[in-house]
Amino acid sequence: MSMSNSGDSKPLSANGLVFADWDRDYRQDLIIAGPNGLKLLTASESGGFEDVTKECGLDAGVISTAYYGAWIFDAESD
């Protein structure tokens, strides 16, 4: 699987895919982090995913940085 923010597509590491309930709607959203940047996809009621990366409020530099993977950390233990 590859992901591209530009025209250059590079393979993802298995560590770059994380399911988490990002928006607290009890549906598992998808976080994709790889050599071409970061994507945040929210799960819809119909079972698909919507790309909300631009709406999440992260700096453009954070979104476009190359990543090896993503991990979940629950700082509040909830």
Architecture overview:
The protein is mainly beta and 78 residues long. It has one helix spanning 60-64; strands at 2-3, 10-11, 17-20, 29-34, 37-43, 49-51. It contains one helix and six strands, in the order ββββββα. The strands form two sheets. The protein has a four-stranded antiparallel β-sheet. A hairpin with a 5-residue loop joins β5 (37-43) and β6. The chain is globular and about 35 Å long. The relative contact order is 0.24.
Q: How many individual β-strands?
A: 6
Morphology call:
globular
- Separate helix tally: 1
- The strand order across the widest sheet is 3-4-5-6
Low-confidence stretches: none
Mean pLDDT value: 85
Structural class: mainly beta
The main sheet comes to:
4 strands, antiparallel
- Strand-and-helix sequence, N→C? EEEEEEH
Q: In percent terms, what proportion of residues is strand?
A: 25-35%
Distance between the termini: 32 Å
Radius of gyration: 13 Å
Helix content: under 10%
Give the tags.
78 residues; single chain; 6 strands; 1 helix; 4-stranded antiparallel sheet; 31% strand; 6% helix; mainly beta; two-stranded antiparallel sheet
Tell me the layout of helices and strands.
Elements: E1 2-3, E2 10-11, E3 17-20, E4 29-34, E5 37-43, E6 49-51, H1 60-64
Antiparallel strand pairs: 1-2, 3-4, 4-5, 5-6
What's this entry about, in short?
This protein has 78 residues and is mainly β.
